[in-house]
Amino acid sequence: MTQTRQRGERAVRAVAGDLVELSHSLHSEPELAFEEHRSAAKVSELLAGYGFEVTPGVADLPTAFTAVYGSGDLVVGLCAEYDALPGMGHACGHNMIAAMTVGAARGLAEIADDLGITVLVLGTPAEETGGGKIVMADAGVFDRVAMSMMVHPGRADEIAASSLALADLAIRYTGLESHAAAAPERGRNAADALTVAQVSLGLLRQHLRSGQQLHGIVSDGGRAPNIVAGHTELLYYLRARDQLSLDDLRERAEGCFAAGAMATGCSYEVATVSPTYLELQQDARLLSAYREAIVDSGRPMVPTGLEGVRPLGSTDMGNVSHLMPVIHPLIGIDSGGAGTHEIEFAAAAASESADRAVVDGAVALAATAVHAALDPELRDELLQAHEQRTGGQPQTAGQRR
What we know:
By secondary structure, the protein is α/β, with parallel strands linked by helices. It has 12 helices and 12 strands. Helix 4 (94-115) links the parallel strand 3 (74-80) and strand 4. The longest helix is centred in the last third of the chain and has 23 residues, at 352-374. The chain is elongated. Residues 380-401 are annotated as: Disordered.
């Protein structure tokens, strides 16, 4: 381990108490997508206390921010997530993600001048729904970044995590209300349209391609049993291994949506709720450096291959991975076998095991950036790829020492 990496690790461990306190504070006040006002403030205020220059409200998103330290030509992006799940709190452990990111940023700030890097923390809201990173990327917030990293909690350490492309849709049916007993013949039942669509989707499942999935809920089923439903709504996620397969699935699913309207004489519309999430593509070179660092922290040796690994769901980090080299490994916590999006995992995300993972993840992220900065070939490739992507635009990440 180089002396520079050791200094970065010591800087992380020196603020371990701050990181755990932040993780627990976020956990105790969960906030939903685009509503993470307290959470964004807690994360950015701690970074400001560490000497970072914080810019709130980037990309016209009130709960997004950037925090920058250093002036090197290699800009290392660290993504902080902090949104929670409806009714389940931090059952995906985003409180831990934010704390790990802050810890890695603090460690890298200590050695930024030695490494010739700029540390850029991106406060990214609305990962669960809304695609905050996609909105930020479209607004140019990621333009100055050469590589991006984050670590997600899970049931076990997993290096080569993958995710599926996702379409987030709302399907709305409009019929004609009437008295369900006295004049049912006058109505056009939007609830029946919804039922026909769901039956059609259920039958479609038999013919889905490998990696394709669809699942949803009824978000509006009508007003009352004695009123023929005039308005109903489905919320559906369509998932696939890549964009091409997702386009195929959407075409077939939209036939099912149309069938509901055709069978009942209703009209319908399909609206996009969140931007399309792309599949995650992790960078093998950065993953190798992360794996070495996480094993050095005393965590179990984990395989690097994808064989037999179930996709972790979908994430807007996938879109970032189509722009630049990215890592998004999983770090394991003792959840009693519960997985993310289960209420037991929410409790585990503020446990002693989670607290250890916060520090271990932060140390490993910082060490990965050290490797990228000090490996001449990798550093040059990152800088050249960034220049090609941005057309050689000058860095504007700012400076704060």
